[in-house]
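R.M. (postdoc): so does anyone remember the format we settled on? I'll just put the structure tokens first.
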């Protein structure tokens, strides 16, 4: 059996009881919870809607987790990272004019693309929420590991068995945390894939609109020739 000093030395050197990574001490912060939730939800919405980039999203989340992200920062993020997006007006809000409409086939395809864009948007929202939840869980697990490490350090001389128990618990928590980090990376790849889907959908919509305009021009040219 390892002695008190030896077990702690093995722990610090990455032996059977885990590595000696340093983590910040456990703490619980209850201040400004309401404001933080508002900021968190707004950042998620901006990212899910494609109004900010992935880099901007993670930078904002990092500052928020450190308590350095304010409402002023949110305003700057919303305006600085904004990508122009306009939703199609409802039927009763569309301007009335006598311009010829695109063919029903093109209109049908555009409606299909818009539906898929909305589906991708909702999926991005859900993935963004999952990623934030996993990040928060990983943070809490790190705090638990730091606590177990501190308790093992305090008990190593007086109660070796209890110290071992804390170190074993720390190791199990570390395994769980590593699994969650893998899931986070997978979701990150999913988010990138959905962003590529959005790019392809937008490109296809522009292509169809261009084709529709050419059809309208050809029809207009034919009408003029028949005058």
């Amino acid at each position: 059996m390892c002695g008190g000093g030896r077990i702690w030395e093995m722990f610090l050197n990455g032996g059977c009881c885990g590595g000696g990574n340093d983590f910040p001490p456990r703490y619980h912060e209850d201040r400004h919870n309401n404001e933080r939730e508002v900021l968190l939800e707004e950042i998620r919405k901006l990212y899910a809607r494609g109004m900010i980039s992935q880099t901007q999203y993670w930078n904002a989340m990092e500052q928020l987790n450190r308590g350095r992200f304010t409402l002023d920062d949110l305003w700057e993020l919303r305006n600085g990272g904004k990508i122009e997006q306009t939703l199609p007006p409802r039927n009763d809000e569309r301007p009335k004019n006598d311009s010829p409409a695109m063919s029903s086939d093109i209109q049908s395809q555009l409606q299909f693309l818009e539906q898929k864009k909305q589906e991708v948007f909702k999926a991005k929202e859900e993935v963004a929420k999952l990623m934030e939840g996993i990040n928060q869980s990983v943070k809490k697990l790190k705090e638990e590991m730091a606590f177990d490490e501190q308790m093992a350090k305090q008990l190593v001389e007086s109660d070796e068995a209890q110290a071992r128990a804390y170190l074993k618990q720390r190791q199990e928590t570390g395994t769980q945390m590593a699994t969650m980090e893998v899931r986070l990376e997978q979701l990150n790849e999913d988010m990138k894939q959905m962003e590529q889907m959005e790019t392809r959908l937008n490109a296809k919509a522009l292509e169809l609109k261009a084709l529709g305009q050419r059809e309208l021009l050809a029809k207009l040219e034919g009408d003029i020739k028949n005058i």
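R.M.: ...and that's the designed sequence above, right after the tokens. Also worth knowing: Residues 102-227 form one domain. The radius of gyration is 28 Å.
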